[in-house]
Automatic annotation (TrEMBL):
Gene3D superfamilies: MetI-like
CDD domains the UniProt entry points to: TM_PBP2
PROSITE patterns tied to this protein: ABC_TM1 (PS50928)
Organism domain of life: Bacteria
Pfam families hit by this protein: BPD_transp_1 (PF00528)
The protein's name: ABC transporter permease
Keyword Transferase: no
Family: Belongs to the binding-protein-dependent transport system permease family.
UniProt membrane topology term: Multi-pass membrane protein
InterPro entries to which the protein is assigned, alphabetical: MetI-like, MetI-like_sf
Keywords per UniProt: Cell membrane, Membrane, Transmembrane, Transmembrane helix, Transport
Transmembrane region(s): 30-52, 84-104, 124-140, 146-165, 186-207, 241-262
Organism, scientific name: Paractinoplanes ovalisporus
């Protein structure tokens, strides 16, 4: 008679191995750049073989030449810094306002009654559709552009932070009451850290949204910025310069999103998830 031995009990280390085998696998160094590198390789191969016509999309090497020309003979650095200043200012205002509103609404029933309804109404109205109204209120200068970017960034910060606050297990509150922790300590040490994953997720959406707003507002009477450069290139039919601007926008967004993801991984190292 064949004897079948029972499997050895799974210890903590074994469980880690199983989770790693069933999850996404071991992380590669520099994995953030693999996808963009593949896209660049396909773009280069398509341009070199003629599958991608220059009239459709400028070849990467022509984009590099146009970038050098804009850097040496035009004020590309000034345009980049101008765009970054607009995006950073609008994003900062949006993050602060969205975070404060989310905390007030998430920690207070009265605050939720006053704040959550208008924010949900705002979600159904595209911010870019409000630009004509903002022009009437703030003019066509820098203030309108920053307000637009801030309002676009505010919504994802509010929504995800508010969801993070409301999603905290109520048993933590019961435990805090049992051991006599005050409301202030409970909010500082349990509620806000518990809402941090939602806030950082909202940051990823807010960064992308701020760049979307930047692309649009820089088409309105901008005297500097990547959008201004693209507008001039469109008037003169300089497709390569347009692609330079689009690539810079893409690099902005990808680097900002990567920075938020790396920050989240370090700050939330205590969480056991498939990502980390």
């Amino acid at each position: 008679m064949t004897v079948i031995e029972a499997p050895a009990p799974a210890f903590e280390g074994d469980e880690r191995v199983v989770r790693r085998r069933l999850g996404p696998g071991r992380r590669f160094r520099g994995a953030f750049w693999i996808g963009p590198a593949v896209v660049l390789a396909l773009w280069s191969a398509g341009s070199a073989t003629g599958l991608i016509k220059p009239a459709i999309l400028t070849a990467p090497w022509d984009v590099v030449i146009a970038f050098q020309d804009q850097w040496v003979n035009h004020d590309l650095l000034g345009n980049v810094l101008s765009s970054l200043a607009r995006a950073a200012s609008g994003l900062a205002f949006g993050v602060v306002a969205g975070g404060v509103l989310a905390v007030v609404s998430g920690l207070s029933r009265a605050g939720e009654s006053l704040i959550d309804g208008p924010i949900q109404i705002k979600r159904s109205v595209p911010t870019l559709a409000l630009i004509p109204l903002f022009i009437a209120w703030f003019g066509i200068g820098q203030e309108m552009k920053i307000v637009t970017i801030a309002l676009i960034s505010l919504v994802p910060i509010y929504v995800h932070t508010h969801n993070g606050l409301r999603g905290i297990d109520g048993r933590y509150a019961e435990l805090a009451e049992t051991i006599g922790i005050g409301r202030g300590e409970f909010v500082r040490h349990i509620v806000l850290p518990g809402a941090l994953p939602g806030f950082l997720l909202g940051m990823r959406f807010a960064v992308t949204s701020s760049l979307l707003g930047l692309v649009v507002v820089e088409q309105y009477n901008a005297t500097a910025g990547i959008g201004h450069m693209i507008t001039l290139a469109e008037q003169y039919g300089q497709t390569d310069v347009i692609v330079v601007g689009l690539v810079i926008y893409g690099v902005f967004g990808y680097c900002a999103d990567t920075a938020v993801r790396l920050t989240a991984r370090r700050v939330l190292a205590w969480r056991q998830t498939l990502e980390g």
